[in-house]
Write a structure and sequence with these properties.
The chain has about 150 residues and is an alpha/beta fold. The protein has six helices and six strands; from the N terminus they run αβααβββββααα.
Length: about 150
Amino acid sequence: MKITDLLLEDTMKLDLEANTKDEVIDELINLLYLAGRVKNVKKFKREILAREKMSSTGVGDGVAIPHAKSKSVVEPTLAFGVSKKGIDYESMDNKPSQIFFMIAAPYKGHDLHLDALSKLARMLIHEDFREGLLKSETKNEILNLINQKQD
């Protein structure tokens, strides 16, 4: 599985409007819903928030990776968003998050979300990769950047 197999142009937004953690979650879930990848927005949000209660998925270095397995997910998909101004996502390093990858995985099946999480984490530890995501001006640039970084 490649990250770019899960990421659609329809589930990407390079200029998030959100100002809060809750708004970021809503905005990313809405992208998944509009792309036909999540069928029940409220249920999926409850599952994302339940995961957040365990510990914040704001992993630090300006990155947050909210994720959940859900019966509401039609097909495994990633949503991606960038906030140039940064948003308080209750990150582990207490710094604002600017890069968001939301992993939506079907409830049944193998732990695809853990595989995607692991692959994303290996890419996102590199500062040049994070900077590239922030500087990208088109969705195609994002996809190309991810393709170049995938193992």
